[in-house]
Specification:
The structure is a homodimer.
Chain A lengths: L3 E8 L3 H17 L4 E5 L4 H7 L5 H9 L2 E6 L15 H11 L4 E7 L12 H4 L3 E7 L11 E5 L2 E11 H17 L3 E6 L5 H13 L7 E6 H10 L6 E4 L1 H14 L7 E5 L5 E5 L16 H13 L4 H16 L2 E2 L9 E2 L2 H11 L1
Parallel strand pairs in A: 1-2, 1-3, 3-12, 5-10, 8-9, 8-10, 13-14
Antiparallel strand pairs in A: 4-5, 4-11, 6-7, 11-12
Helix pairs in contact in A: 1-10, 1-12, 6-7, 8-9, 10-11, 11-12
The structure holds 3-isopropylmalic acid (IPM) (2 copies).
One 3-isopropylmalic acid sits at the interface of chains A and B.
Protein name (chains A, B): 3-isopropylmalate dehydrogenase
Pfam families (chains A, B): Iso_dh
EC number (chains A, B): 1.1.1.85
Chain lengths: 357, 357
């Protein structure tokens, strides 16, 4: 078969240094027979600085032509003053999601037993935590029209539209039911159906899908309660499915429960299995360029890429095994270090994973 | 001066039994010279069952004529099947907020030292926690138009509108700045200004107010980061101000950090100081009618009422002192009990607070 194309988008802040380590791991996979070509392009603030656009045409064209994308992170205070929302680094990311139709965002929140102490929660509350959040990524209030700021009756109003169609809900619902089927067969759909009409439709469509997945137990929870339950007893969840905005909030809260957001990868998939893979953490401008950042979430994003877009589950498992090994060996970047472990830099961590690979 | 009017709305689930204990405390205040008349009315599912409406005209009229309202809780599975959102118990609550203009929702998240063990977070992360969340309560996506479910291009879509005007943002901003001024002078405004236009306006107005409150330090945080930071290091916050939907989610998460949501009161105020007071927890239908519920949040809501609507800070402090005393004495309802404490019922807890008053 033809060699598949991977596009690397380092982005901003710590993006370049963490993707560098992940690319080393990709190259090690090539040495073990993975037939891929790796290209690179600009996105986010880096693209804005070079071309005045967070998502230049050339980057978008390369992204469309690739089988999978590895993204570092976008954004930072340097670009916060850009007045035009369309030029902000975030629009590079949102544009990629939208243009590539990457509606299915998978965000695992897993507590690594080696890192149990890093959590701000009591060990008994989080030990063994393994949740998968399925977030709709190309609709909802992120993209709804009309939107804007305008004058009405002599004063300015800001407005956005939270909107979902049946088809959009159904397709993310199917991703979530399938995911639950492969896991512990429990799916919790999160909405605010006691207040918002859009989520009444959401709940109705989830209910309509349920009979097609009789092996999966579907439940519903209001978003405020879900935020509480994640704090109180997160292990009650297996798979959570929700819209773009609620998913943004809940997946970050869930990731932080593990205390090691620097460890968590994510995948964003479209209908043909093309995917974008990125760490859950952001661009961390405060530590950028200092060889301090944790590259493991990005390396684990490569593992997700191998599993979901490149159909190479064995290589994915090898990467995950290598990450487990370096953690067992006590190697830690600053964000997950504690007394008795060995502090390493970004590149040392990448090298250690390679050595264990 | 004229005796002031308090309206009690027990509502659904555990509402009647917890408000009963709070009314006992109100009566004890009357014996100590508080000049109020206390009336009662139906709201929520209870009102729907009796009159087919979650907010009957008579209830609304009484509410408008009162100086302060004490609400138990509304809702429960019994009414979840009502198709028409306008008839659901929640609409009783939302209608009261809207018709009375109760835009300023104050939700404290305080960790009682006597209950430190109840939190799912590590003691060092939450000990001494004292956050005040100021949530806008009569605008945003809860009330925005247009809203509904309708057919477009052959399929149904659900939609809601997230909208704020300058004036709405300014008035909740002022409540928050004033609150910060009375506390530790730190205000964090939570938005999603990297994605949503409505919150770009929100951020702009908060910035515009800041010079009027030079003693208050204003910061901004994206809502996803705020959800993370609440889990990671909640003590970094003093006052948080945010819109209706984000406030719903974050205040519940913050309340749960304390592990004793059964302890947390809330106030909802309008421009003339009229207020509605209610516990942060819900109607807990699973334990309703069993004399098991914790009445302390409702009793503490009476204290908030005395402070914010009735200008009786000494009585408010007496109630808070009495609650502290029963906790010191080791009395606990089921939700906050642990080995070595004395399990008491709803009414026993109410009686104990009265005895300590
Ligand atoms: C950077 C931002 C636009 C983005 C989002 O809100 O989706 C980020 O928070 C995420 O969750 O990937
Ligand atoms: C019952 C519901 C409508 C309400 C809300 O969403 O505001 C509740 O969750 C609250 O926070 O008071």
């Amino acid at each position: 078969r033809m060699s598949r194309k991977i596009l690397v988008l380092p982005g901003d802040g710590i993006g370049p240094e963490i993707t560098r380590e992940a690319v080393k791991v990709l190259e090690a996979c090539q040495e073990r027979g993975l037939d891929v070509t790796v290209d690179e392009a600009l996105v986010g603030g880096a693209a804005y600085d070079a071309h005045g656009e967070p998502l230049p045409e050339t980057t978008l064209a390369k992204a469309k032509a690739s089988d999978a994308i590895l993204l570092g992170a976008v954004g930072g205070p340097k670009w916060d003053k850009i007045e035009d929302l369309a030029k902000r680094p975030e629009k590079g990311l949102l544009g990629l999601r939208k243009h590539l139709g990457l509606f299915g965002n998978l965000r695992p929140a897993i507590l690594y037993p080696q890192l149990a102490e890093a959590s701000s929660l009591k060990p008994e509350v989080v030990s063994g935590l393994d949740i998968m959040i399925v977030r709709e990524l190309t609709g909802g209030i992120y993209f709804g029209q009309p939107r804007g700021i305008e004058e009405r009756n002599g004063q300015r109003v800001g407005f956005n539209t939270y909107i979902y169609s049946e088809a959009e809900i159904e397709r993310i619902g199917r991703v979530a039911f399938e995911m639950a089927r492969k896991r512990n067969k429990k799916l919790c759909s999160v909405d605010k159906a006691n207040v918002l009409e859009v989520t009444i439709l959401w709940r109705e469509i989830m209910e309509r899908l349920a009979p097609e997945y009789p092996d999966v137990e579907l439940s519903h929870m209001y978003v405020d309660n879900a935020a509480m339950q994640l704090v109180r007893a997160p292990k009650q969840f297996d798979v959570i499915v929700t819209g773009n905005m609620f998913g943004d909030i809940l997946s970050d809260a869930a990731a932080m429960l593990t205390g090691s957001i620097g460890m968590l990868p994510s995948a964003s998939l479209n209908e043909s299995g093309q995917g974008m893979y990125e760490p859950c953490h952001g661009s961390a401008p405060d530590i950028a360029g200092q060889n301090l950042a944790n590259p493991l979430a990005t390396i684990l994003s490569v593992a997700m890429m191998l599993r979901y877009s490149l159909d190479e589950p064995e290589l994915a498992e090898r990467i995950e095994g290598a990450v487990g090994k370096v953690l067992d060996d006590g190697l830690r970047t600053a964000d997950i270090a504690y007394p008795g472990t060995r502090r390493v830099s970004t590149s040392e961590m990448g090298d250690a994973v390679l050595a264990a690979f």
